Amino acid sequence: MRDKRVLLGMSGGMDSSMSAVLLQQQGYEVIGATLLTHTDEKDASIIAAQNLAKERKIEHHVLDCRERFEKTVIQYFIDEYLSGRTPNPCIRCNETIKWKLLLQLADELDCQFIATGHYVQKEKVGHRYYIRKGIDPTKDQSYFLWNLNQEVIAKALFPLGELHKKEVRDLARQLGYAAIADKKESMGVCFLAGTDYRNYLSDLLDKNHPALSQGTVVDENGNELGHHDGFPFYTIGQRRGIEGVAKGMCVVAIDADKKQLIAGKREALNSQALVLKDYSLSPDASLWKNIKVFIRIRGLDSVPGYWGHIREHEGELHIQFDETVWAITPGQSIVIYHNDMIVAGGIV
Known about the structure:
Layout: E1 5-9, H1 14-25, E2 29-36, H2 44-55, E3 59-64, H3 66-82, H4 89-108, E4 113-115, E5 120-125, E6 128-133, H5 150-155, E7 156-157, H6 165-174, H7 178-181, H8 197-204, E8 215-219, E9 224-228, E10 249-255, E11 260-265, E12 270-276, E13 278-281, E14 293-296, E15 306-313, E16 316-326, E17 333-338, E18 341-347
Parallel strand pairs: 1-2, 1-4, 2-3, 4-7, 8-11
Antiparallel strand pairs: 5-6, 8-9, 10-11, 12-16, 13-18, 14-15, 14-17, 15-16, 17-18
């Protein structure tokens, strides 16, 4: 039946594998799809997804999107660092590659739903759908999905949103998938494969690329303090490995045009307000206007969120924090919640 057909994004890992099992237990006819983004067909994750699909009698498709991924995600990743910004390629991929391709294939295969193994939930308020945090605070991935559109969220299913990671792992073992349960969890940017982004940039760019040449480190008054070996190798707030930077100082700005690192005291990165020009905001003002909202400035669990207020004015989203926030970084996403539900998001 069409109303029980779901296209599941399968990475070959535990979360998407157990999502397949749970969806089948709930009576769905599962169709699997694995995106080939930066590896080849012999990659272990591709094979793992194919093997699970075969065992579970799931029709499986491999979508070769390597060229599109390189142009849309990897090039963005490079360009952002070359502009002195800090990119978030996972959010970029979710918006421009992953969900668009899943939605397109779902339509072709007559699937009413699309699903992934993200630890998030969704909720309908009025006539709109919203992404909600997963109940496992240590695995919540809602931050990375703030820019999904209504067409995607309406069709999305998240089988793991009401489960804790431990429950999913225990389920895998109970069903005889110990190898999957014990598999090391993939973390970070997929195409970096655990390597430092600096090494990745060095390998991709010509060694004579202007951005990788030596530049100056200056203080906030323009006084030269030292030199660096390529401004893309540094990020806002970095303290170590910078020539001429005294104790208590860090990178407070990056001037890509001048190839300069600007160093200052850590306190220079403190702020209590922010204005976003690139953002999305729920049209239901009752969810954010004149009420306290929760604001995340990073996707990392180690970086806490903050309470504050937001308002929209002349095409800009103004954010006022209730406390001092440190090192808001150009290029990163700001995600805003009301009662654990995403009501706004944008890019610094």
